[in-house]
Amino acid sequence: HDTLKNEVLAKAREAGVKFIRLQFTDILGVLKNVAITIEQLEKALDGELMFDGSSIFGFTRIEESDMYLRPDPQTFVVFPWRPREGGVARLMCDVYNPDGTPFAGCPRNALKKVLAEAAELGYTMQVGPELEFFLFQVDGSGAPSLKTHDRAGYFDLTPVDLGENARRSMVLTLEEMGFEIEASHHEVAPGQHEIDFKYSNALDVADKIVTFKFVVRTIAQRHGLHATFMPKPVFGINGSGMHMNQSLFKNGANVFFDPQDPGQLSKDAYHYIGGLLKHARAIAAVANPTVNSYKRLVPGYEAPVYLAWSGRNRSPLIRIPAKRGMSTRVELRSPDPSCNPYLAIAACLKAGLDGIKNEIAPPLPCDRNIYEMDEAERKELGIYSLPGSLKEAVDELLADEVIRDALGPHILAKYVEAKNAEWDQYRVQVHNWEVDKYLTMF
Ligand code: ADP
Ligand code: MG
Ligand code: MG
Ligand code: MG
Ligand code: MG
To answer: C or N: which end of the chain has fewer Cβ atoms within 10 Å?
Structure first.
Protein backbone atom coordinates (compact mmCIF):
# COMPACT_ATOMS: atom_id res chain seq x y z
CA HIS A 1 0.00 0.00 0.00
CA ASP A 2 2.78 2.44 0.91
CA THR A 3 4.48 2.13 -2.48
CA LEU A 4 1.20 2.75 -4.30
CA LYS A 5 0.47 5.66 -2.01
CA ASN A 6 3.85 7.25 -2.64
CA GLU A 7 3.44 6.76 -6.38
CA VAL A 8 0.16 8.66 -6.29
CA LEU A 9 1.67 11.45 -4.19
CA ALA A 10 4.60 11.74 -6.62
CA LYS A 11 2.33 11.70 -9.69
CA ALA A 12 0.09 14.38 -8.18
CA ARG A 13 3.03 16.64 -7.39
CA GLU A 14 4.63 16.09 -10.76
CA ALA A 15 1.41 16.96 -12.59
CA GLY A 16 0.97 20.14 -10.55
CA VAL A 17 -2.35 18.92 -9.16
CA LYS A 18 -4.00 21.28 -6.70
CA PHE A 19 -7.39 19.60 -6.16
CA ILE A 20 -8.36 15.95 -5.93
CA ARG A 21 -11.90 14.73 -6.29
CA LEU A 22 -12.66 11.66 -4.22
CA GLN A 23 -15.32 9.87 -6.24
CA PHE A 24 -17.81 7.14 -5.49
CA THR A 25 -21.36 6.36 -6.64
CA ASP A 26 -24.60 6.09 -4.79
CA ILE A 27 -26.87 3.08 -5.21
CA LEU A 28 -28.35 4.43 -8.44
CA GLY A 29 -24.88 4.92 -9.92
CA VAL A 30 -24.87 8.70 -9.61
CA LEU A 31 -21.30 9.92 -9.33
CA LYS A 32 -20.51 11.80 -6.10
CA ASN A 33 -17.47 13.95 -5.36
CA VAL A 34 -15.73 15.15 -2.26
CA ALA A 35 -13.08 17.69 -3.28
CA ILE A 36 -9.88 17.95 -1.25
CA THR A 37 -6.65 19.87 -1.72
CA ILE A 38 -3.26 18.32 -2.39
CA GLU A 39 -2.32 18.97 1.25
CA GLN A 40 -5.00 16.49 2.38
CA LEU A 41 -4.11 13.81 -0.16
CA GLU A 42 -1.85 11.75 2.08
CA LYS A 43 -4.47 11.63 4.81
CA ALA A 44 -7.10 10.67 2.22
CA LEU A 45 -4.91 7.86 0.88
CA ASP A 46 -4.63 6.52 4.43
CA GLY A 47 -8.43 6.31 4.50
CA GLU A 48 -8.69 8.83 7.28
CA LEU A 49 -11.03 11.19 5.52
CA MET A 50 -14.52 11.24 6.93
CA PHE A 51 -17.60 12.53 5.13
CA ASP A 52 -21.26 12.89 5.94
CA GLY A 53 -23.05 9.99 4.28
CA SER A 54 -26.53 11.15 5.23
CA SER A 55 -26.84 13.32 2.14
CA ILE A 56 -26.03 10.50 -0.26
CA PHE A 57 -28.96 8.50 -1.61
CA GLY A 58 -29.37 5.08 -0.04
CA PHE A 59 -26.41 5.44 2.25
CA THR A 60 -27.32 5.77 5.90
CA ARG A 61 -29.78 7.08 8.37
CA ILE A 62 -28.95 10.51 9.76
CA GLU A 63 -27.93 9.19 13.16
CA GLU A 64 -25.17 7.02 11.75
CA SER A 65 -23.95 9.27 9.01
CA ASP A 66 -20.18 9.22 9.43
CA MET A 67 -18.49 7.36 6.61
CA TYR A 68 -14.92 6.92 5.52
CA LEU A 69 -13.67 7.04 1.96
CA ARG A 70 -10.85 4.68 1.04
CA PRO A 71 -9.38 5.79 -2.28
CA ASP A 72 -8.14 3.08 -4.62
CA PRO A 73 -4.65 4.33 -5.57
CA GLN A 74 -4.85 2.45 -8.90
CA THR A 75 -7.58 4.84 -10.03
CA PHE A 76 -5.57 8.07 -9.84
CA VAL A 77 -6.03 10.12 -13.00
CA VAL A 78 -5.56 13.79 -13.87
CA PHE A 79 -8.40 15.54 -15.74
CA PRO A 80 -6.74 16.56 -19.02
CA TRP A 81 -9.23 19.34 -19.81
CA ARG A 82 -8.28 21.27 -16.71
CA PRO A 83 -5.40 23.80 -16.76
CA ARG A 84 -1.91 22.39 -16.16
CA GLU A 85 -1.36 24.78 -13.26
CA GLY A 86 -3.60 24.07 -10.31
CA GLY A 87 -4.84 20.91 -12.00
CA VAL A 88 -7.57 18.53 -10.90
CA ALA A 89 -7.29 14.76 -10.42
CA ARG A 90 -9.57 12.09 -9.11
CA LEU A 91 -9.50 8.86 -7.12
CA MET A 92 -12.29 6.29 -7.02
CA CYS A 93 -13.15 5.27 -3.46
CA ASP A 94 -14.69 2.46 -1.47
CA VAL A 95 -16.93 3.50 1.38
CA TYR A 96 -16.17 2.18 4.86
CA ASN A 97 -17.93 2.28 8.22
CA PRO A 98 -16.31 4.05 11.18
CA ASP A 99 -15.44 0.60 12.62
CA GLY A 100 -13.34 -0.22 9.56
CA THR A 101 -15.73 -2.67 7.91
CA PRO A 102 -16.82 -2.20 4.26
CA PHE A 103 -20.08 -0.26 4.06
CA ALA A 104 -22.91 -2.50 2.76
CA GLY A 105 -24.47 0.36 0.78
CA CYS A 106 -21.39 0.91 -1.39
CA PRO A 107 -21.93 -0.48 -4.93
CA ARG A 108 -18.19 -0.84 -5.51
CA ASN A 109 -17.96 -3.03 -2.40
CA ALA A 110 -20.93 -5.09 -3.68
CA LEU A 111 -19.11 -5.79 -6.93
CA LYS A 112 -15.90 -6.66 -5.07
CA LYS A 113 -17.81 -9.23 -3.06
CA VAL A 114 -19.00 -11.07 -6.18
CA LEU A 115 -15.52 -10.76 -7.70
CA ALA A 116 -14.13 -12.46 -4.59
CA GLU A 117 -16.61 -15.29 -5.08
CA ALA A 118 -15.30 -15.72 -8.64
CA ALA A 119 -11.71 -15.53 -7.40
CA GLU A 120 -12.38 -18.47 -5.08
CA LEU A 121 -12.95 -20.54 -8.21
CA GLY A 122 -9.81 -19.04 -9.75
CA TYR A 123 -11.67 -16.74 -12.16
CA THR A 124 -11.27 -13.07 -12.98
CA MET A 125 -14.08 -11.49 -14.95
CA GLN A 126 -13.26 -9.48 -18.07
CA VAL A 127 -15.76 -6.95 -19.36
CA GLY A 128 -15.90 -4.94 -22.59
CA PRO A 129 -18.80 -2.46 -22.68
CA GLU A 130 -20.13 -0.71 -25.80
CA LEU A 131 -21.60 2.59 -24.71
CA GLU A 132 -24.04 4.40 -26.98
CA PHE A 133 -25.25 7.95 -26.40
CA PHE A 134 -26.94 10.85 -28.14
CA LEU A 135 -25.55 14.31 -28.73
CA PHE A 136 -28.28 16.94 -28.74
CA GLN A 137 -28.22 20.67 -29.30
CA VAL A 138 -28.77 23.10 -26.47
CA ASP A 139 -31.16 26.01 -26.94
CA GLY A 140 -30.42 29.70 -26.39
CA SER A 141 -30.86 29.45 -22.63
CA GLY A 142 -28.53 26.45 -22.40
CA ALA A 143 -31.28 23.87 -21.87
CA PRO A 144 -30.86 20.57 -23.73
CA SER A 145 -33.23 19.90 -26.62
CA LEU A 146 -34.02 16.78 -28.64
CA LYS A 147 -32.64 18.38 -31.79
CA THR A 148 -29.67 16.91 -33.62
CA HIS A 149 -27.86 18.60 -36.43
CA ASP A 150 -26.57 15.65 -38.33
CA ARG A 151 -28.05 13.44 -40.95
CA ALA A 152 -25.35 10.84 -40.81
CA GLY A 153 -26.08 7.15 -40.51
CA TYR A 154 -24.17 4.15 -39.29
CA PHE A 155 -20.41 4.49 -40.03
CA ASP A 156 -21.16 7.57 -42.13
CA LEU A 157 -18.19 9.82 -42.75
CA THR A 158 -19.87 12.92 -44.13
CA PRO A 159 -18.73 16.28 -42.75
CA VAL A 160 -22.30 17.37 -41.93
CA ASP A 161 -22.02 15.91 -38.48
CA LEU A 162 -21.32 18.52 -35.80
CA GLY A 163 -21.00 15.69 -33.32
CA GLU A 164 -17.92 14.32 -35.09
CA ASN A 165 -15.66 17.00 -33.66
CA ALA A 166 -17.03 16.49 -30.20
CA ARG A 167 -16.59 12.74 -30.45
CA ARG A 168 -13.00 13.06 -31.68
CA SER A 169 -12.24 15.27 -28.70
CA MET A 170 -13.90 12.74 -26.35
CA VAL A 171 -11.73 9.95 -27.74
CA LEU A 172 -8.53 11.98 -27.33
CA THR A 173 -9.46 12.96 -23.77
CA LEU A 174 -10.32 9.39 -22.80
CA GLU A 175 -7.01 8.21 -24.27
CA GLU A 176 -5.14 10.78 -22.21
CA MET A 177 -6.90 9.32 -19.17
CA GLY A 178 -5.64 5.81 -19.88
CA PHE A 179 -8.51 4.37 -21.94
CA GLU A 180 -7.54 2.18 -24.89
CA ILE A 181 -10.17 3.18 -27.46
CA GLU A 182 -10.86 0.35 -29.89
CA ALA A 183 -13.56 1.95 -32.00
CA SER A 184 -15.64 5.08 -32.24
CA HIS A 185 -18.40 5.58 -34.76
CA HIS A 186 -21.69 7.17 -35.58
CA GLU A 187 -24.60 4.90 -34.69
CA VAL A 188 -27.80 4.10 -36.57
CA ALA A 189 -29.93 6.98 -35.28
CA PRO A 190 -29.35 10.68 -36.02
CA GLY A 191 -27.16 12.21 -33.31
CA GLN A 192 -26.28 8.79 -31.89
CA HIS A 193 -22.69 7.69 -31.26
CA GLU A 194 -20.74 4.76 -29.87
CA ILE A 195 -17.26 4.67 -28.37
CA ASP A 196 -15.77 1.29 -27.44
CA PHE A 197 -12.80 0.79 -25.19
CA LYS A 198 -10.72 -2.32 -24.63
CA TYR A 199 -11.97 -4.91 -22.19
CA SER A 200 -10.33 -5.20 -18.81
CA ASN A 201 -11.04 -6.67 -15.38
CA ALA A 202 -14.54 -6.00 -14.09
CA LEU A 203 -13.70 -3.50 -11.35
CA ASP A 204 -11.49 -1.41 -13.61
CA VAL A 205 -14.23 -1.40 -16.27
CA ALA A 206 -16.96 -0.38 -13.82
CA ASP A 207 -14.78 2.57 -12.73
CA LYS A 208 -14.11 3.36 -16.39
CA ILE A 209 -17.82 3.34 -17.31
CA VAL A 210 -18.57 5.88 -14.57
CA THR A 211 -15.62 7.99 -15.73
CA PHE A 212 -16.59 7.60 -19.40
CA LYS A 213 -20.08 9.01 -18.88
CA PHE A 214 -18.73 11.94 -16.95
CA VAL A 215 -16.03 12.70 -19.56
CA VAL A 216 -18.46 12.42 -22.49
CA ARG A 217 -20.90 14.83 -20.82
CA THR A 218 -18.13 17.27 -19.93
CA ILE A 219 -16.59 17.33 -23.41
CA ALA A 220 -20.01 17.58 -25.10
CA GLN A 221 -20.74 20.63 -22.99
CA ARG A 222 -17.48 22.22 -24.09
CA HIS A 223 -18.64 21.75 -27.67
CA GLY A 224 -22.02 23.34 -26.96
CA LEU A 225 -23.81 19.98 -27.07
CA HIS A 226 -25.68 17.89 -24.54
CA ALA A 227 -24.70 14.23 -24.23
CA THR A 228 -27.30 11.88 -22.84
CA PHE A 229 -27.15 8.24 -21.78
CA MET A 230 -30.92 8.12 -21.43
CA PRO A 231 -31.89 4.76 -22.96
CA LYS A 232 -34.65 5.91 -25.33
CA PRO A 233 -34.76 9.68 -25.73
CA VAL A 234 -36.80 9.69 -28.97
CA PHE A 235 -39.70 7.44 -29.93
CA GLY A 236 -39.42 5.84 -33.35
CA ILE A 237 -35.62 5.59 -33.59
CA ASN A 238 -33.03 3.32 -31.92
CA GLY A 239 -32.34 3.77 -28.25
CA SER A 240 -28.92 3.65 -26.57
CA GLY A 241 -27.62 0.40 -25.18
CA MET A 242 -24.53 -0.71 -23.35
CA HIS A 243 -23.83 -4.20 -24.66
CA MET A 244 -21.78 -6.04 -22.09
CA ASN A 245 -19.15 -8.39 -23.49
CA GLN A 246 -17.99 -10.74 -20.74
CA SER A 247 -15.61 -13.62 -20.23
CA LEU A 248 -13.75 -15.39 -17.44
CA PHE A 249 -9.98 -15.73 -17.33
CA LYS A 250 -7.94 -18.20 -15.28
CA ASN A 251 -4.15 -17.86 -15.06
CA GLY A 252 -4.20 -15.42 -17.96
CA ALA A 253 -6.14 -17.75 -20.28
CA ASN A 254 -9.72 -17.32 -21.48
CA VAL A 255 -11.68 -20.23 -19.97
CA PHE A 256 -14.62 -19.70 -22.35
CA PHE A 257 -12.48 -20.96 -25.25
CA ASP A 258 -12.32 -24.67 -25.99
CA PRO A 259 -10.89 -25.55 -29.42
CA GLN A 260 -12.15 -29.16 -29.05
CA ASP A 261 -15.82 -28.19 -28.86
CA PRO A 262 -17.78 -27.93 -32.16
CA GLY A 263 -18.72 -24.35 -31.23
CA GLN A 264 -15.24 -23.80 -29.68
CA LEU A 265 -16.89 -22.90 -26.40
CA SER A 266 -16.07 -24.50 -23.04
CA LYS A 267 -18.49 -26.11 -20.59
CA ASP A 268 -18.00 -23.03 -18.39
CA ALA A 269 -19.07 -20.80 -21.26
CA TYR A 270 -22.24 -22.80 -21.90
CA HIS A 271 -23.10 -22.83 -18.21
CA TYR A 272 -22.39 -19.11 -17.92
CA ILE A 273 -24.87 -18.53 -20.77
CA GLY A 274 -27.34 -20.82 -18.98
CA GLY A 275 -27.01 -18.78 -15.80
CA LEU A 276 -27.39 -15.45 -17.60
CA LEU A 277 -30.55 -16.65 -19.35
CA LYS A 278 -32.00 -18.10 -16.17
CA HIS A 279 -31.59 -14.81 -14.30
CA ALA A 280 -32.01 -12.38 -17.21
CA ARG A 281 -35.43 -11.17 -16.10
CA ALA A 282 -34.14 -10.23 -12.65
CA ILE A 283 -30.92 -8.75 -14.04
CA ALA A 284 -33.11 -6.34 -16.03
CA ALA A 285 -34.08 -4.54 -12.82
CA VAL A 286 -30.42 -3.62 -12.41
CA ALA A 287 -29.17 -3.41 -16.02
CA ASN A 288 -32.30 -1.57 -17.21
CA PRO A 289 -33.12 0.49 -14.16
CA THR A 290 -35.41 3.24 -15.42
CA VAL A 291 -39.00 3.54 -16.60
CA ASN A 292 -37.53 4.68 -19.91
CA SER A 293 -35.29 1.58 -20.24
CA TYR A 294 -38.33 -0.50 -21.22
CA LYS A 295 -39.17 1.83 -24.10
CA ARG A 296 -35.88 0.67 -25.64
CA LEU A 297 -36.51 -3.07 -25.15
CA VAL A 298 -39.14 -3.31 -27.91
CA PRO A 299 -39.12 -5.03 -31.32
CA GLY A 300 -37.84 -3.19 -34.36
CA TYR A 301 -34.88 -1.19 -33.05
CA GLU A 302 -32.05 -3.74 -32.69
CA ALA A 303 -32.64 -4.03 -28.95
CA PRO A 304 -33.26 -7.46 -27.42
CA VAL A 305 -36.71 -8.53 -26.31
CA TYR A 306 -36.63 -12.33 -26.13
CA LEU A 307 -34.61 -14.65 -23.91
CA ALA A 308 -32.48 -16.57 -26.36
CA TRP A 309 -28.90 -16.86 -27.52
CA SER A 310 -27.16 -17.26 -30.83
CA GLY A 311 -23.75 -17.25 -32.44
CA ARG A 312 -25.11 -16.01 -35.72
CA ASN A 313 -27.68 -13.27 -35.67
CA ARG A 314 -27.84 -10.07 -33.68
CA SER A 315 -31.45 -10.18 -32.57
CA PRO A 316 -31.28 -12.33 -29.41
CA LEU A 317 -30.46 -11.28 -25.90
CA ILE A 318 -27.12 -13.08 -25.91
CA ARG A 319 -24.82 -13.19 -28.89
CA ILE A 320 -21.57 -15.13 -29.12
CA PRO A 321 -19.34 -13.04 -31.40
CA ALA A 322 -17.38 -15.13 -33.91
CA LYS A 323 -13.94 -14.30 -32.46
CA ARG A 324 -12.26 -17.09 -30.49
CA GLY A 325 -9.06 -17.46 -28.49
CA MET A 326 -8.57 -14.60 -26.03
CA SER A 327 -11.59 -12.80 -27.54
CA THR A 328 -14.04 -15.63 -26.80
CA ARG A 329 -16.89 -13.88 -25.06
CA VAL A 330 -20.56 -13.73 -24.26
CA GLU A 331 -22.27 -10.50 -25.32
CA LEU A 332 -25.29 -9.55 -23.24
CA ARG A 333 -27.22 -7.02 -25.29
CA SER A 334 -29.84 -5.88 -22.81
CA PRO A 335 -27.98 -3.48 -20.47
CA ASP A 336 -28.34 0.22 -21.10
CA PRO A 337 -26.05 3.05 -20.02
CA SER A 338 -28.43 4.38 -17.35
CA CYS A 339 -27.47 1.44 -15.13
CA ASN A 340 -25.14 1.48 -12.16
CA PRO A 341 -22.23 -0.44 -13.75
CA TYR A 342 -21.01 -1.87 -10.43
CA LEU A 343 -24.39 -3.46 -9.72
CA ALA A 344 -25.09 -4.50 -13.32
CA ILE A 345 -21.73 -6.26 -13.63
CA ALA A 346 -22.15 -7.84 -10.18
CA ALA A 347 -25.59 -9.18 -11.19
CA CYS A 348 -24.29 -10.65 -14.47
CA LEU A 349 -21.31 -12.32 -12.84
CA LYS A 350 -23.46 -13.72 -10.05
CA ALA A 351 -25.83 -15.22 -12.66
CA GLY A 352 -22.94 -16.66 -14.66
CA LEU A 353 -21.35 -18.18 -11.56
CA ASP A 354 -24.70 -19.71 -10.61
CA GLY A 355 -24.72 -21.28 -14.07
CA ILE A 356 -21.21 -22.68 -13.61
CA LYS A 357 -21.71 -23.90 -10.03
CA ASN A 358 -25.01 -25.59 -10.80
CA GLU A 359 -24.10 -26.63 -14.35
CA ILE A 360 -27.13 -24.91 -15.84
CA ALA A 361 -27.36 -26.04 -19.47
CA PRO A 362 -28.52 -23.30 -21.83
CA PRO A 363 -31.37 -24.02 -24.25
CA LEU A 364 -30.42 -24.75 -27.86
CA PRO A 365 -29.09 -21.67 -29.64
CA CYS A 366 -31.71 -19.90 -31.69
CA ASP A 367 -30.28 -19.05 -35.10
CA ARG A 368 -33.58 -17.93 -36.58
CA ASN A 369 -34.90 -14.41 -36.37
CA ILE A 370 -37.13 -14.56 -33.31
CA TYR A 371 -38.93 -11.38 -34.32
CA GLU A 372 -40.29 -13.10 -37.40
CA MET A 373 -41.85 -15.91 -35.38
CA ASP A 374 -45.37 -15.61 -34.09
CA GLU A 375 -46.32 -15.93 -30.45
CA ALA A 376 -47.25 -19.62 -30.83
CA GLU A 377 -43.90 -20.56 -32.39
CA ARG A 378 -42.00 -18.78 -29.66
CA LYS A 379 -44.08 -20.54 -27.04
CA GLU A 380 -43.38 -23.91 -28.63
CA LEU A 381 -39.63 -23.21 -28.54
CA GLY A 382 -39.89 -22.01 -24.94
CA ILE A 383 -38.69 -18.48 -25.72
CA TYR A 384 -39.80 -15.97 -23.11
CA SER A 385 -39.43 -12.18 -23.01
CA LEU A 386 -37.55 -9.69 -20.91
CA PRO A 387 -39.79 -7.75 -18.50
CA GLY A 388 -42.01 -5.22 -20.24
CA SER A 389 -41.76 -2.59 -17.52
CA LEU A 390 -39.70 -1.45 -14.58
CA LYS A 391 -42.41 -2.74 -12.26
CA GLU A 392 -42.29 -6.21 -13.77
CA ALA A 393 -38.49 -6.22 -13.53
CA VAL A 394 -38.43 -5.19 -9.87
CA ASP A 395 -40.88 -8.00 -9.06
CA GLU A 396 -38.55 -10.43 -10.84
CA LEU A 397 -35.62 -9.13 -8.84
CA LEU A 398 -37.49 -9.64 -5.58
CA ALA A 399 -38.24 -13.24 -6.59
CA ASP A 400 -34.65 -14.10 -7.55
CA GLU A 401 -32.48 -15.24 -4.62
CA VAL A 402 -29.27 -15.20 -6.66
CA ILE A 403 -29.55 -11.65 -8.02
CA ARG A 404 -30.81 -10.38 -4.66
CA ASP A 405 -27.66 -11.80 -3.19
CA ALA A 406 -25.49 -9.94 -5.74
CA LEU A 407 -26.80 -6.66 -4.30
CA GLY A 408 -26.94 -7.67 -0.66
CA PRO A 409 -29.85 -6.85 1.67
CA HIS A 410 -28.94 -3.19 2.28
CA ILE A 411 -28.66 -2.18 -1.37
CA LEU A 412 -31.60 -4.40 -2.35
CA ALA A 413 -33.97 -2.74 0.13
CA LYS A 414 -33.00 0.83 -0.80
CA TYR A 415 -32.93 0.02 -4.51
CA VAL A 416 -36.37 -1.58 -4.57
CA GLU A 417 -37.80 1.27 -2.51
CA ALA A 418 -36.40 3.84 -4.95
CA LYS A 419 -37.50 1.95 -8.06
CA ASN A 420 -41.03 1.35 -6.78
CA ALA A 421 -41.32 5.07 -6.00
CA GLU A 422 -40.04 5.89 -9.50
CA TRP A 423 -42.63 3.56 -11.00
CA ASP A 424 -45.44 5.07 -8.93
CA GLN A 425 -44.49 8.62 -9.97
CA TYR A 426 -44.66 7.55 -13.59
CA ARG A 427 -47.85 5.53 -13.18
CA VAL A 428 -49.94 8.41 -11.84
CA GLN A 429 -48.86 10.87 -14.55
CA VAL A 430 -51.12 11.61 -17.49
CA HIS A 431 -48.91 11.29 -20.56
CA ASN A 432 -49.25 13.06 -23.91
CA TRP A 433 -50.03 9.77 -25.60
CA GLU A 434 -53.14 9.33 -23.46
CA VAL A 435 -54.38 12.82 -24.18
CA ASP A 436 -53.84 12.33 -27.93
CA LYS A 437 -55.58 8.98 -27.84
CA TYR A 438 -58.55 9.60 -25.56
CA LEU A 439 -59.36 13.29 -25.37
CA THR A 440 -61.45 13.30 -28.51
CA MET A 441 -62.41 9.62 -28.43
CA PHE A 442 -64.47 9.88 -25.26
P1 ADP B 1 -19.86 -5.42 -31.67
O2 ADP B 1 -19.41 -6.36 -32.74
O3 ADP B 1 -20.92 -6.00 -30.81
O4 ADP B 1 -20.22 -4.05 -32.20
P5 ADP B 1 -17.52 -4.11 -30.53
O6 ADP B 1 -16.38 -4.43 -31.44
O7 ADP B 1 -18.15 -2.77 -30.68
O8 ADP B 1 -18.59 -5.29 -30.70
O9 ADP B 1 -17.08 -4.29 -29.01
C10 ADP B 1 -16.54 -5.47 -28.54
C11 ADP B 1 -16.10 -5.30 -27.11
O12 ADP B 1 -15.75 -6.59 -26.58
C13 ADP B 1 -14.86 -4.43 -26.94
O14 ADP B 1 -15.02 -3.61 -25.79
C15 ADP B 1 -13.76 -5.47 -26.70
O16 ADP B 1 -12.63 -4.98 -25.98
C17 ADP B 1 -14.52 -6.48 -25.89
N18 ADP B 1 -13.86 -7.79 -25.76
C19 ADP B 1 -12.97 -8.40 -26.57
N20 ADP B 1 -12.54 -9.57 -26.04
C21 ADP B 1 -13.18 -9.71 -24.84
C22 ADP B 1 -13.15 -10.68 -23.80
N23 ADP B 1 -12.40 -11.79 -23.87
N24 ADP B 1 -13.92 -10.47 -22.72
C25 ADP B 1 -14.71 -9.38 -22.61
N26 ADP B 1 -14.77 -8.44 -23.55
C27 ADP B 1 -14.02 -8.58 -24.65
MG1 MG C 1 -20.27 -2.13 -31.15
MG1 MG D 1 -18.03 -3.12 -33.62
MG1 MG E 1 -23.86 -0.16 -31.22
MG1 MG F 1 -22.35 -5.17 -29.55
So the answer is: C
